[in-house]
């Protein structure tokens, strides 16, 4: 893929991609939400990325998803290894916002950033920003701490900043979104 694409092409047809980072974060949230069926998740992601134009093109859903995931992964191979998870876009969004403000002077509430730029900025945050300090606490190896007082302090910090397990119950907004997709597509619920 070229730098910061705005369009996807499937079977010779161009689709405008909603490239705003918030849309991709929402796609990420939907993709991980096991309370929504696979087909409904696919429809939601297609709708978020391509709007009504994507939903109308039922015969190309598979290709639209493939191109969409390639866009989201920035054309890179996704490595799903067993590394310790040290960040969650939803749970850490306030830390992400604070870090963008402190490192770049960017107010994420008042800006429209292309997903690829957002992701690159996120990876370029300094070690001094709050997000990366919390991520370091989450992954710190307690076996490296010999002083018991320091170890207890770090254990408490790890507990305080630990990522919370999510419930798989859809929020009201998520359920409304699923309902809208059923209505738009005319698909009968299973």
Total number of helices: 8
Count of all domains? 2
Which sequence of strands runs across the widest sheet? Answer: 1-2
Low-confidence stretches: none
Largest sheet: 2 strands, antiparallel
Structure class: mainly alpha
- Could you estimate the helical fraction of the residues in percent? 40-55%
Strand content: under 5%
Basic shape = elongated
Task: Describe what you observe in this structure.
The chain is mostly helical. The chain has two domains: 7-80 and 172-185, no CATH class; 93-161, no CATH class. Helix content is 54%, strand content 4%. The protein has a two-stranded antiparallel ribbon. A hairpin with a 2-residue loop joins strand 1 (7-10) and strand 2. The protein is elongated.
Task: Give the topology, please.
Blueprint: E1 7-10, E2 13-16, H1 21-32, H2 38-56, H3 61-72, H4 93-104, H5 115-123, H6 130-139, H7 148-161, H8 172-185
Antiparallel strand pairs: 1-2
Helix pairs in contact: 1-2, 1-5, 2-3, 2-8, 6-7
